[in-house]
Design goal:
about 240 residues; mainly alpha; Rhopdopsin 7-helix transmembrane proteins; 11 helices; about 80% helix; elongated; transmembrane helix; 7TM_GPCR_Srsx; G protein-coupled receptor activity; GPCR_Rhodpsn_7TM
């Protein structure tokens, strides 16, 4: 039998007002994410010169993930507000998982694309000549498909090993899924940050090493200027991404 739940038990650790305010604030943030990333994708689709930039395809892939993330945040916030404002305390684990599906998939996709961008920078700094001849569109497409697969796998795992006859004490994805699925999710996301930082660190080291080796050459100056501009752009994008995350 599912345990009984009401407002007094549901809001034992956080007040009703705090819960409503936080969830309500997530809606405009989600709308902003949808609009902002839609603008990026429109620019990517409209301007051919933008698509010629080596990392443009990965930026577009990240924009797609963040746009879906924005939609997922809106759905998630509305579903949580529905519980609080309409006393919907007879929610099920399936309700908590399904309403978080879009957000979970998009977040895991964003993590994979972030790693792909870091790998892209590492390859650009380590093997600049091979990097310039590589098919950047195919790399971005492969990264996007793998990211989508990863997100779907997490949703599949969230439905395994749970007791549908029991209600979680709070309607969150982590509380609704099995402990094993939650641990895998947390471990995966804990690894991503240090991994991306390590890849960027290796990229910067190889950039400095390559520039020192080719100091004074015209090719070195040109490559340095181009990659410096790309790195500045990606650094700004990644800073905004991690702040919002």
């Amino acid at each position: 039998m599912m345990s009984q739940q009401n407002s007094s038990t549901y809001f034992q650790t956080v007040s009703f007002a705090q819960f409503v305010i936080v969830q309500a604030l997530c809606i405009p943030i989600g709308i902003f994410a949808v609009i902002g990333n839609a603008v990026v994708l429109l620019a990517y689709a409209k301007y051919k010169m933008m698509r010629k930039v080596s990392c443009a395809h990965l930026i577009a892939a990240l924009a797609v993930c963040d746009l879906i993330n924005g939609v997922g945040s809106i759905i998630l916030s509305i579903s949580r507000l529905w519980i609080a404002l309409f006393d919907f305390y007879d929610y099920t684990r399936i309700y908590c998982i399904v309403t978080a599906t879009c957000w979970i998939i998009a977040m895991e996709m964003s993590q994979i694309i972030t790693i792909a961008i870091a790998l892209d920078r590492l390859m650009a700094m380590s093997w600049p000549f091979l990097y310039s001849a590589r098919n950047h569109r195919s790399f971005a497409q492969g990264a996007f498909l793998f990211a989508l697969f990863t997100g779907i796998v997490f949703i599949g795992l969230s439905l395994v090993g749970i007791d549908f006859t029991e209600r979680s004490d709070r309607c969150t994805w982590l509380r609704a899924v099995s402990p094993l699925c939650g641990d895998i999710f947390l471990l995966f996301n804990a690894i991503v940050g240090p991994l991306v930082a390590a890849l960027y660190g290796m990229a910067m080291y190889n950039k400095k090493k390559w520039a020192t080796k080719h100091v004074g050459s015209e090719i070195s100056v040109l490559a340095h200027d181009v990659q410096l501009k790309v790195n500045k752009l990606l650094t700004k994008i990644m800073c905004v991404y991690f702040i919002l995350l």
